Amino acid sequence: ASRAGAAASEKKGRASYVSAAKHLKDCVIYAPRDGVVTARNVEEGTIITSSTGSATGGTTILTLGDTTQMYCLTQVDENDIGSVVTGQHATFTVQSYGDRTFDSVVRKVYPQGVVVSNVTYFTVEMSVPQLPDAAFRPGMTTDVEILTQEKDDALVLPVEAVRESGEGFYVLMEPAKSTGRGTKNPTKPGMKGPGAAAKQATA
Known about the structure:
Layout: H1 2-26, E1 36-40, E2 62-65, E3 71-77, E4 89-94, E5 102-116, E6 119-127, E7 142-146, E8 162-165, E9 168-172, E10 184-186
Antiparallel strand pairs: 1-2, 3-6, 4-5, 4-7, 5-6, 8-9, 9-10
């Protein structure tokens, strides 16, 4: 009887060992891929729920980010979003690098608008270059300019110089020395507004 009891105790002990070894193995957390920890959601000693034993998916312990594939998000007013399309060239600056400008490309225009202070904005996603001398970090604030119009060999005029009358648009030229009066030079306005690389005018 004592031998049978010892055998039963040994079997029970082995089962407890296997169970404890499994629990110990579950304490080791493996990242699904390489990345950088951008947020830690729990402290050491916090009781968490395993995703394998919970219908809610378990406790989020940290956030892992892939900083080799970063992107920039900017908000564009609904009045201007119609001129923004994927593939357009853009530039941005970050406070960490002063006035240095970085090249970018519009990758995606989100279809759903967001209302902020009664104004609808659309999110635009842009690429972020990988540069050896610039370390970008998640959450940085950027100032963005998107090039929506471009014209080579264009005549650039200040907006204030182009005037309009009943006969159309014109530019008032400098007064002639002989008459002291300026002359109206008819013009055809081209590109205008934010995002234009130049303004075209033909006399």
